[in-house]
Every structure is written in C-alpha cells, then in structure tokens.
Amino acid sequence: MKKLSRNTILSIIALAAIVGFMIYAENTFNPYLLRILNLCAVYSIFAVTFNLVYGFTGQFSLGHAGFAAIGAYIGALLTMSPAQKQANFFLEPIVPFLANIELPFILAIIIGGLGAALVGSLVAWPALRLKGDYLAIATLGFSEIIRVLLVNMQPITNGALGLKGIPDYTNLYWSWGTAAVCIFVCKRLVDSNYGHALKAIRDDEIVAEALGVSLSYHKLLAFFTSAFFIGSAGVLFANLISTIDPKVFLFFLAYQIVGITVMGGMGSLTGSVISAFLYTIFLEFLRPIESQFNIGSIQVPGIPGMRMVIFSFLLLMVILFYRRGLMGSSEFSWDWAAEKIGALRRLFSGSGKTGVDDIGKED
Amino acid sequence: MTLPLFFQHLANGISLGSLYALIAIGYTMVYGILRLINFAHGDVVMLGAYMAFYMIAIFRLPWWVSFPVAIVITAGMGVVIERAAYKPIREFPRINLFTSAVAVSFLIENLGIVIFGGRPKAFERPAFMDITIRIGKVTIVSYTLVIILTALVLFGGLLVLVNYTKTGKAMRALSKDIETTGLMGVDTNRIISIAFAVGSALAAAGGILTAIKFPQINPLMGVMPGLKAFIAAVLGGIGNIPGAMIGGFILGVSEIMIVAFLPDLAGYRDAFAYSILILLLLFRPTGIMGEVQAEKV
Amino acid sequence: MALLKLDNTVMRFGGLTAVNKFSTEITDNELCALIGPNGSGKTTIFNIITGIYTPTSGSIHFNGEEINGMRPDLITKLGISRTFQNIRLFKGLNVVENVEVGHHLRLRSDPISAILNLPGYKEEETSIRKEALELLESLELAHLAYDVATSLPYGQQRKLEIARALATHPRLLLLDEPAAGMNPNEAEELMQFILHVLETFKISVFLIEHQMRVVMGICPRIIVIDHGETIAEGTPEEIQNNNRVIEAYLGVDDYAGN
User: Fold this and answer.
1) Per-residue CA distances from C22 to C39, C51, C83, C174 (Å)
2) Which of A57, A164, A328, C147 pairs as cysteine with A222 (C-beta 3.0–4.6 A)?
3) Boundaries of every domain in chain B
4) Domain B3-283 adopts which CATH fold?
5) Which of C91, C105, C165 sits opposite A213 (nearest CB)?
6) What is the pLDDT of residue B291?
7) Which chain A residue's Cα is nearest to C128?
8) C32 is in which domain, residue-wise?
9) pLDDT for position A93
10) pTM strictly above 0.95
11) Helix (H, G, I), strand (E, B) or coil at C157
C-alpha cells in the first residue's frame, strides 16, 4: 500500500504543478508562446485519438482531417456572433437557423465533438468490411468527400472562402482541459477490459470474434470516442487560429497526424503526447530556416517548405529503421520513471565500471 | 446537348480516360505482385511532368528528346523508390508497406514544393499538339487525339510485354504466387524492379500528357489523378492490367459526361469519384474483371 | 435433445465442394473426435459451426436454435467456443489478458462505467482477473500469468489457447488439433486435462485430431471424414477395422500416428 500512496502523491503534485504552470503561463507568456502551447494540446488530442483507433484497435483510418473539419466548422458557426457571420457570408447569405445562434464555448466544444462523432461512427461500418490499406484509402476518400461538401455548401460553410474572425476563445485551460479529458478517457478505456477487446481486435480480429467479442460494437466504440475528441480538437483549433477554410483540412493533416503518432510509438499514448509536443515545437523552432537568415556575414536564402521535408524524411526513417517509435508500446508511469532514473544513475555513478564491485550496488 | 457537343465530350472523356488508364496500370502491376497500394504512384506522375519540363526549359531539348528521356529518368526514380522504401520492409506486415508509401508520397510532395517551387509553372505545349481540328461541327484540339493514340500504343506495347515475353510471364507468375515463383528460380527482385520501372514510365507518360492537356504543372498535380487512377484500377479489378485500362476509360468518360449533363453538380465531381471508390471497396472490391478470393482461416 | 446438430451441411467454394452433406449430433457432456486425412474438410466444418462460413446448404442447430449464418461472436455467446489449428494468441497481450478476452462477452458494465472506474465495473474487473488466474492455475500456467503470451514454450501456448476458449464458459468446446506439435507425454497430459474439463464443467468437446494414438485411447466416438463426407463413425475398434478408413489413410504418411 505504501507504493500506491507514493504514486498518488506524485500524481497530485504533478497535476498541481501543471495547473500552476498553466495559470502562470496564461498570465505572463506572450501570445506566440501561448499559441504554441495550445497547438501542442490540439495535436496531442489528434495523435492520441489516432493511436486509439489504429495503435490499439488496428483500424488504419485516414479520416481525421474530415472529422476535425466538421468539429471546426460547427465550433466556428456556433461561436461567431451574428454580425461576424453576416460579414463573412457576403457571397450567399447564411442558412437562417445558423444566422443568429451564438453559444458558450463549452457547448460549442461538445456539439462539435458530437457532430464529428456521428460522422465518425459512419466510418465504423466500412471498417467492418475493409482491412488495412483498403480501409485507409476508403477513409481518405471519406475525408475528402467531407471536404468537397464543405467547399460546395456555400450557405452553410461559406464554401471555399472559409470563415474569418472566429473568436479566439481557446486558451490553455480549454485546450489542455479538453486534452486532459481525452487522454484520461482513452487511457482508461485502453487499460480496462474493453481495452483488451480492442487490442484483441487489433492482433487477430477473427479470433477475437470467435471469443465472443462483437467487432461492430467495439470498432464503433473506438471510432465514436476518437471522432468525438478530434471534433472537439477541431473546435479548439478553429477558435485558436481564427480563420478556417476547407484547404486547412486537406489530407496533409492526416499524414501529419499519422507521422506524429507513428513516431511517438503505436500503442503508447504517452508517446503520442510527447511526439505531438516535439512536432509542434520543432516546427516552430525551425521556422526561421524558411525565410532568409544570416550566418555571420553570409546570407542564406530561406527554403519554404523545408520543415515538412525534414519531418517527412524523419518519418520515413522511423518507418524503415525504427518502427517502434519513441516509446514503443510503453506508457509513462511513476514506476516506469523510477526505473529509468535508476538505470541512468547506475550508468553514471559507476562511471562505466561494471563487474564484481557493482553487484552489491544493484537494487 | 447537341450531337457534335456530345462527340466532343466523348473525345474528352476518352482522352481523360487514357490518362487515368496509363496511371492506373502502374498501381495494378505493383499491387498484383506485391499486394501493395503504391500510394506514392501519383507523385511519380508529377515527377514525370517536371522532368520533361526541366529537359525543355533548362537543357533546351526538343520535345521528342525530352519526353522519352524524362520517362526513362522517372522510371529510374520509381525503381529507386522501390529499392529504398519498400524492399527493406517487404517481409513486414503489409500495413507497414502502406504506411511507408504514405510517407514516401508525403516526402516527394514536400520535396517537390521545396525543389520545384510551390507555384504552378506553365508547360510548353509542342506546336503540333496545339492545333484546333474541326470535323463538321465538332471541335477538338489535337492533343486530345495525341493522348488517345499515345496511350493505345503504350497499352499495346505493354500487353506484348506482359503476354509474350519471358519477363512478362515472370510478372504474371509472381502475381499469382510470389513465394513459389521465387523458389522456381525467378529473380524476384529484378522482376519487381522492372514492374516498378514500367509502371513509373507509364505514369510519367501520363504526367507529361496531363501537363500538355492543362498546360500547367505544380508539385501536387499528381495527387488527384493518382487517386482517380487508383479508383479506376479498383474499378477494373485491382491486379488486372486490362481491367486497369477499362476502368480508366470508364471513369474518364463518366466523369466528363456527369459534368456535361449535370453542370450544377460540377463542384462535386471529385466527391462522385470517391463515392464510387467507397462503394466499390464495400460491395465489389474485385472490380469488373477481378476474381473473388476467399480468405483461408 | 442434441446439443449440436448438423443436418446435411454442404460447403461449396466456387467449383470445389469442401463439405458434402455432413450430418452428425453431439449430445451433452460428450467427447467426440473428428479425424480424416489432410484437406478432408475438418477445419471447414468447424468454421461452419462457429459461423466463419455460412453453409451453402443444410442447417446447424445448437440447443434447438438454428445457427447457420449467424455472426461468430453471437454463436460464441450461445455457448460454442473453439481453438485454432495454428496457434493464434494475441501478441500484444500478456497471458492472463489473453484469457480475459474470453471473459469479455460476459462483461455487463458499459464503457462509461469502465472509463470512470465505477464500483460495479471495478468489481467485475477483479472477479474476471480472479477467474482468469484460476483457469491458468488449473492448467499450471499461473506462474506465467504476466509474461508476453507469445514468449511461452509451444506446448504452453496451446494450453493457453484452450484456457482462453474455456473462459467464454462454453457448453461445447471445439478443439482444432490441440495436440499438434506436442511430444507423446505432453499430448497424453493434454488429453487427461480435456477429460478433466469434461467432468468438471460438464461440457461437450468436439475435437479434430490428426494423431491417431491421441484419439483412439480416450474418445468413445469417432467420426472419420474424407473429401468432406463421413466415411465411418463409431468406437475406436470399429473405426480401426473399417476398410474405407484404411483406404482413405493409405497413401498418407500419418496412418497410425506421425
């Protein structure tokens, strides 16, 4: 029982520290840094949910760009003021029932999530009949159909013009709050008996079914949950970057999410979060190389698009040579951390010495 | 819809269909042998167009030199992609191959943006392909016919290769049973490389002809045609070469006809194609000419 | 009333008839073996019973209910469970978790209770873990409970598969070559365990076996099929002296054991 208390205490301290940090950051950091931290939350949700569906349930779905788009548009339309909407829909007036709706942010997030979840559940049906790469292509097609609909339904979405002036409601509390709920739900699901069923489906669907696991129910569960949070992340995203149009949700977004999750480790939620952080930060950190910069007196021309080249190259390397990704299928826990720290200490304290002397020092 | 207008649309449809068919063959050949959907194939189309562009723009070679050279270079690139990104993980579960293909596609597109520049470039149409022909009341630009003819010639050549040469026989054997054929002394790696080379060459031809048709190229130009060609390959029966050709023509003609007869729905033309794909995958994944394969438990 | 009844079941794949008018009945608490040369259709019959294939014609009744064409997981919920010819353990789960997948169909808590770790769910999770460990204990696998399932020695993996199938609380257990790859001692041990399971849980076992000596010793009833048809049925003595059986096996190396 002593160990359990230690872990719980550590968790509480960590949580308090994170919340404290968030409060501090919200009040002191500049908007640029805050934006990065918010994006980290959004991408974490994207990666964690993709992992749920693919890393844990074995369904290679490339539909998340579409689900995020649905969430984003619902969120935008529900949070923009009637005046803002009128300003946007100058080509063709907005559909009447949407014109005057303005809801609190929490409702927008939930409704956006539900909207995406309903559509995401539709995908569960093809998932019953298609495997692997075929499912991927079908879901990609699905995502693109959503995008085409968004481009063409002028009275609802303002078509290709997109929506500008979405209120920037997203702050660290909203984004990291939602991310925390998402991570908690996914982790609990995966650790529970339902998680066994999902992993069984991933490992051998036919045997899982032969053991009484309903494929339709569990795939639906995975898709619904994942799409719900992707949708909410879409809402957060829209209210962060304040301008959205269908092009934002091109299949490129799906590739990025696949990349982030693969690099973090399929089957590790921790890996997904870490990878999402690294990705967002790395992308910002390397932004300078895309515009001109100076090394001493030498002017080096910027190369736009270079960051994505680096990212996609790294992804290919991971797929070819380091399939497990960063965390493989391990998860963070205080015990795991203690183990790693112990290993590191042994490495440094013995200064490389191994042998009879050290046997007594091992715990 | 007047008759001459109908014929014009038909010609455009067949022309578009030829492009899809040329690209679809590459998908189907690779899938037949490796059971891999080569996601990067659409980007090979783009590479072919750009190679031809640079041959003309930088090296100032006439089109009848640039085009074949570009096709050969792109065929080589196809082989390089296979060797670098697919061969090392051939033994792994299929899904890894697919993820690798997605990554390769992503990489090529981004490299294209960086190396070639994201802005579209104008493609120089060879003079004789720019002639407007009038047959009665029907108006066609000559490139439409060139595309169809080129495609037919290439198809003919391909069918000869596949059906009447040793290499072709080896390819067909590999698509039936890759392990046993390998054990029979067929150099699997060499044949796979040849399949990629031929598929990429045809894709490059498709890319060049596409560049001639619209005449503009950009680093993402291969994505749509690639996806549509894949749909065509599935429609005809993935793994089946004549099927890919038939699927290409059906898709091309349908696409043009739907837009012609229902111009209000023109914005949805891509959505139609994707819907066809999803319906096919769900209800008739073996396509028109494919054989149903039961899964052994 | 028979527990399982197959009535003139036919399975055709295109031009190939894998199972040709196969009929039989299995009663409560019965041990019955299905033997035959390679490719005679044994696994196909299992696949039909468990819902992986829908028979081309004919019917299957379990407990009086028609089950042909039913979804596999629903058939399992009715009380039929199976193992597979090739070992198919869940690679990403450890030993006890593999067994727990078998318990999943009896989980009554919904996902929300599971996510929130409500008392009702917690209770179920604990009792499932307890039962799974007990099952492993009875197969002498409990000491390996937290190992990766695929790291077990071959014989243990086969036993784990059976434990997993038993976790679904079946009334009829289908075993597809459970002793494959085992040495004579292990096979003997396994057969004793199967008899033990029959007695303790009062279930029926229908097993496919390729090795004669495994089956001859303990199964009171044996069905012999060839080319998808029953060619003989009866006690071990009757089978051994049946000419058609001898004919079917001549030309195959596996007669009278591997």
Assistant:
1) 15, 16, 21, 17
2) A57
3) 3-283
4) ABC transporter involved in vitamin B12 uptake, BtuC (1.10.3470)
5) C105
6) 65
7) A193
8) 4-79+170-249
9) 77
10) no
11) helix
